[in-house]
Amino acid sequence: MEKIRIIWVGRNISPWTEITREYSKRINRYIKIGEILIKPSNKRSAALRIEDESIKILSKLENNDTNCVLDREGETISTYTFYKWLFNQLEEKRRRTVFIIGSSDGIGEKVLAKADKILSLSKMVFSYQLSKTILYEQIYRSVCIRYGIDYHRE
Amino acid sequence: MEKIRIIWVGRNISPWTEITREYSKRINRYIKIGEILIKPSNKRSAALRIEDESIKILSKLENNDTNCVLDREGETISTYTFYKWLFNQLEEKRRRTVFIIGSSDGIGEKVLAKADKILSLSKMVFSYQLSKTILYEQIYRSVCIRYGIDYHRE
């Protein structure tokens, strides 16, 4: 059963998908990870698109999971703090951890209200493809710290 | 003539290279950008590798350029602040801007001493492939702000 899930709004675009697929493959050797892709809304305004996408995201959330929303206004943490937090959810609390990445329009208030953690990867604005890639790399890096694989250096 | 140059220590690995090449192509329509690749040192210790790579990096630096070193301990700035700073170098100061990305061993003190700016992309540790991709995306995003291309949203 999946222990980590990434719910994201966007489209699979090569060569980004090849990169995240490779990280997924490596992570899967240690922890089951999966993705749920939500197609971007085609409503006219950003507000309507966010509302539309929020409904779809909310329908995918389940009770007892830890929900972590990626948002630029969130908390910025180091890789090591991320690793400690992630494995605390997985191993101490025994909770599946769900990461949520919105579209370039942003993330809805109703989704933010369901967040156990709001995480910012950077003060900079990144495309969702880039955010997803960074997230996968940080999860893989955490797995490497946890299982003593030579990859991460402080 | 190149207005932006990226000096980086690493290896061209597909599919990362396809992504940065695509950004480079898009940026080049507006501003000339180029790369200098430095092969990672194969010395035994990290300290020796850093020293080796620093000598090679320093040999590529030229007077009158603005040197910006990427380092996790540097300044974290927003995309908009990055854009303002970059175009101030390029258009007001009329200086070529050189970005320097070290290997996973880190960046040498002698290179840091040549920096006009030390920039941190995040509090997290990223691979050099990921750092380079983020840098390209931020440069492209800045070009989009400058030339009114619909890509960046706050």
Descriptive notes:
Two copies of one chain form a homodimer. Chain A has 154 residues and is of the alpha/beta class. Chain A has one domain (4-147): Alpha/beta knot (3-Layer(aba) Sandwich). The first copy, chain A, is 43% helix and 21% strand. The first copy, chain A, is built from five helices and five strands. In chain A, helix 1 (16-28) links the parallel strand 1 (4-9) and strand 2 (33-38). The termini of chain A are far apart. The model of chain A has no long low-confidence stretch (mean pLDDT 96).
Morphology of chain A: globular
Task: Indicate the mean pLDDT of chain A.
Answer: 96
Strand portion of chain A: 15-25%
Biggest interface found: A-B, 28 and 28 residues
**What is the chains' assembly state?**
homodimer
The topology string of helices and strands of chain A comes to: EHEHEHEHEH
The CATH homologous superfamily name of chain A equals: SPOUT methyltransferase, trefoil knot domain
Q: Just name the CATH architecture of chain A.
A: 3-Layer(aba) Sandwich
**H/I helix tally of chain A:** 5
- β-strand number of chain A: 5
Q: What structural category arises from helix and sheet content of chain A?
A: alpha/beta
CATH fold title of chain A: Alpha/beta knot
Which stretches of chain A are poorly predicted, pLDDT < 50 over at least 5 residues? none
Distance N terminus to C terminus of chain A?
A: 31 Å
Q: Numbering strands along the chain, what is their spatial order in the largest sheet of chain A?
A: 2-1-4-3-5
**Radius of gyration of chain A, CA atoms, in whole angstroms:** 15 Å
In helices, the fraction of residues of chain A equals 40-55%
In total, the number of domains of chain A comes to 1
Q: What is the class of chain A in the CATH system?
A: Alpha Beta
Characterize the main sheet of chain A.
5 strands, parallel
